[in-house]
């Protein structure tokens, strides 16, 4: 790891009322790499991502972005830093076309009027840079797109803003085999472009296919953050289900006690 | 996604007109009917009525259609904003009544000048929308309930303003002129020429600019068709409206475009511009399509909601002013009885979806025309009010049915 992490979290705690969801979590994301965030249901993956995205404020811990300590008080702050999250439900408007969706909430204007031509050009350029050649027209309504195409649009929307970190929440969960391959391909290309990609996934095949690094959460604790090339399939499954695997993982075994 | 096809995209050559026609037919077949049902309905209704009652086609009746339908169409135009969000405003009819009553009281009883009274009526409308919108967006009461309550309450407010149901007559000439006076025939023609030329210039300019940047643009043949259609329709309408309508032209000449027509057209252009060319309009569609996505995109969903209700009630106030002008008076029935249902019907018949996210300002006019033609034609046929209501209700049901069915079909073909 010659490069410095673009995002580094240290000692993150997060509680919802009496329930502590995240305990002392450390998490690093590196540019040009795909970091897979894995964990069983309820391990705290979504909460961690929402803390990164500024949707949940963190109770304790430090948030470093490009080596500097920052305070993320809301989604706007995260977006300003260059953190974009693609949620599982994609958050696209079916009744709008691809360009309109990609620029939603951040429309280019010249005076009062929307600058459609510039937006269309930028959208086309972004899709081209991602080697996306599957959409017929940029003025197609999103409702007419397939699941994989929608995922592509959602990812392109996240990339459009010169973002530094793109977080993908289960991007392949609802897709077929061919479309999954295409989306994973796109994920890999994002990292190759120099972005830091965080991929949340339940699918071990996907994780091993594209990720450089794996971070496993277990009951709200970071069990281990390892290089994908240094672990086996079954080790990762053990980390997810038991929080430890041999030398790796939480050494006191049970994450529930502190 | 498995089949990778890239026709057209990025090519500099404009797609041929055939592609546009094919795309349109494909959209219609896929369940995206747009204004097609309203246009077909309008043609069929006009044909039926003009065969059964030749008087339907007379210039005087044609002009009547505009003044009869104006208030409903204007209220419907405001309702579009609320319907686009998937909400409803049942109080728009009586809101227009309240605003008309404010206008009447200030104008006739208090002797205010017309512009001050009009401004006060409009401000009343905006304030009503602000209250309703805040209750819906901030408190989270369903709009159906809030506006149903407002519907009842405003009925009472109109009665209170009119001192238990007396009738206030409007004597101000400017207000009366809106629905009762006509533009000089020459001015009507000038408007057509300027309007068509401006439209053509805008279309050509836009196509040039897009083609210059290598983006797909409308081909010249399509632009020529659009401009030609506008010229023919507006030219024909102005020609008929400029014919002598008076039964006794020597005593009083009655010809020209009713003043209410340019008022409606200005409102149509304004709201079409707002909905399609500004970020605000884009956000309205976004909130109607997927409120959660809009929220995550940083759009202030509550503010959009409130503003839609403000615009709706504001347009209702204009509708109320037009209604007062047409009736020469304000009475407890102004904006009452069927006005709201006709307005909702107009919007839905025109192709606006009750489920939100789909609709245009033009829908209100097309649907309003259908409603006006039904009311007018059935009146000429000598049917009673009872039959008229029943038929209009059936047409509304039909339109909502078409909307629901086309949604189903769109979902089946993946175009929802």
Protein architecture, described:
The complex is a heterodimer of chains A (about 260) and B (about 425). Helices cover about 30% and strands about 25% of the residues of chain A. With about 260 residues, chain A is an alpha/beta fold. Chain A is globular and about 60 Å long. Chain B has two domains: about 55-180 and about 280-410, no CATH class; about 180-255. In chain B, helix 2 (about 35-50) packs parallel to helix 15, helix 5 runs antiparallel to helix 6 (about 145-160) and helix 14 runs parallel beside helix 16 (about 385-410). Chain B starts with 16 loop residues before the first helix and ends with a helix. The chains are: A alpha/beta (about 260), B mainly alpha (about 425). At the A-B interface, helix 2, strand 8, helix 4, helix 5 and helix 6 of A face helix 11 and helix 12 of B.
Chain-wise SSE layout:
The complex is a heterodimer of chains A (258) and B (416).
Chain A: E1 7-16, E2 19-29, E3 34-39, H1 45-52, E4 60-65, E5 68-69, H2 75-81, E6 83-86, H3 98-102, E7 109-110, E8 113-114, H4 116-129, H5 147-159, E9 165-169, H6 177-192, E10 196-200, H7 204-210, E11 213-218, E12 221-227, H8 233-242, E13 244-245, E14 248-249
Parallel strand pairs in A: 3-10, 3-11, 6-9, 9-10
Antiparallel strand pairs in A: 1-2, 1-4, 4-5, 7-8, 11-12, 13-14
Helix pairs in contact in A: 5-6
Chain B: H1 17-29, H2 36-52, H3 59-84, H4 92-109, H5 114-139, H6 143-161, E1 168-169, H7 173-180, H8 185-212, H9 220-241, H10 260-277, H11 279-289, H12 291-296, H13 301-327, E2 329-330, H14 339-349, H15 361-380, H16 385-412
Antiparallel strand pairs in B: 1-2
Helix pairs in contact in B: 2-15, 3-10, 3-13, 3-14, 3-15, 4-5, 4-6, 4-13, 5-6, 5-13, 7-13, 8-9, 10-11, 11-13, 14-15, 14-16, 15-16
């Amino acid at each position: 790891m010659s490069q410095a992490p673009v995002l580094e979290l240290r000692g993150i705690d997060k509680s919802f009322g009496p329930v502590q969801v995240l305990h002392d979590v450390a998490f690093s994301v590196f540019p040009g790499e795909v970091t897979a965030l894995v964990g069983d249901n309820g391990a705290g993956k979504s909460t961690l991502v929402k803390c990164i995205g500024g949707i949940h404020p963190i109770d304790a811990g430090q948030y470093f972005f490009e080596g500097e300590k920052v305070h993320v008080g809301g989604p706007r702050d995260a977006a300003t830093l260059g953190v974009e999250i693609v949620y599982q439900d994609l958050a696209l408007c079916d009744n709008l076309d691809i360009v309109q969706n990609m620029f939603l909430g951040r429309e280019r204007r010249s005076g009062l009027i929307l600058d459609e031509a510039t937006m269309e050009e930028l959208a086309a350029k972004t899709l081209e840079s991602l080697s996306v050649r599957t959409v017929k027209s940029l003025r197609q309504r999103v409702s007419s797109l397939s699941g994989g195409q929608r995922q592509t649009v959602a990812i392109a929307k996240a990339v459009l803003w010169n973002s530094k970190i793109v977080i993908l929440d289960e991007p392949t969960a609802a897709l077929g085999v061919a479309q999954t391959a295409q989306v994973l391909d796109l994920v890999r290309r994002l990292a190759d472009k120099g972005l830091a990609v965080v991929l949340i996934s339940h699918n071990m095949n996907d994780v091993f296919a594209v990720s450089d690094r794996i971070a496993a959460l277990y009951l709200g604790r970071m069990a281990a953050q390892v290089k994908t090339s240094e672990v086996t399939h079954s080790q990762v499954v053990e980390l997810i289900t038991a929080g430890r695997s041999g030398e790796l993982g939480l050494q006191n075994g049970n994450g529930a006690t502190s | 996604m498995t089949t990778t096809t890239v026709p057209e995209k990025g090519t500099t050559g404009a797609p041929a007109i055939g592609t546009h026609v094919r795309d349109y037919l494909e959209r219609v077949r896929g369940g995206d009917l747009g204004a097609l049902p309203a246009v077909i309905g309008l043609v069929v209704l006009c044909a039926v009525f003009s065969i059964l009652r030749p008087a339907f086609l007379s210039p005087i009746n044609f002009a009547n259609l505009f003044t009869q339908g104006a208030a409903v169409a204007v209220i419907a135009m405001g309702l579009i904003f609320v319907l686009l969000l998937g909400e409803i405003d049942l109080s728009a009819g009586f809101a227009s009544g309240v605003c008309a009553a404010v206008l009447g009281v200030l104008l006739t009883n208090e002797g205010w000048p017309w512009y001050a009274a009009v401004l006060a009526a409009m401000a009343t409308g905006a304030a009503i929308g602000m209250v309703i919108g805040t209750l819906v967006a901030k408190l989270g009461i369903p709009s159906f309930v809030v506006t149903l309550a407002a519907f009842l309450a405003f009925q009472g407010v109109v009665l209170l303003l009119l001192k238990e149901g007396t009738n206030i007559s409007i004597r101000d000439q400017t207000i009366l002129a809106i629905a009762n006076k006509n533009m000089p025939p020459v001015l009507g023609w000038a408007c057509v020429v300027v309007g068509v030329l401006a439209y053509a210039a805008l279309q050509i300019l836009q196509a040039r600019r897009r083609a210059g940047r290598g983006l797909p643009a409308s081909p010249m043949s399509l632009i020529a068709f659009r401009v030609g259609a506008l010229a023919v329709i507006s030219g024909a309408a102005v020609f008929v409206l400029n014919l002598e309508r008076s039964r006794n032209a020597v005593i009083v000449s009655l010809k020209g475009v009713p003043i209410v027509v340019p008022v409606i057209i200005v409102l149509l252009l304004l709201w079409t511009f707002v909905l399609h060319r500004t970020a605000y309009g884009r956000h309205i569609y976004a909130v109607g399509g997927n409120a959660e996505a809009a929220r995550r995109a940083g759009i202030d969903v509550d503010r959009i909601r409130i503003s839609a209700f403000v615009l709706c009630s504001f347009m209702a106030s204009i509708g109320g002013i037009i209604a007062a002008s047409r009736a020469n008076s304000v009475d407890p029935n102004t904006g009452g009885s069927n006005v709201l249902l006709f307005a909702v019907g107009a919007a839905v018949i025109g192709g606006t979806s009750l489920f939100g996210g789909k609709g245009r300002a033009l829908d209100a006019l097309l649907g309003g025309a259908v409603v006006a033609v039904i009311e007018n034609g059935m009146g000429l046929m000598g049917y009673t009010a009872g039959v008229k209501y029943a038929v209009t209700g059936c047409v509304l049901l039909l339109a909502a049915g078409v909307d629901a069915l086309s949604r189903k079909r769109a979902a089946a073909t993946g175009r929802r």
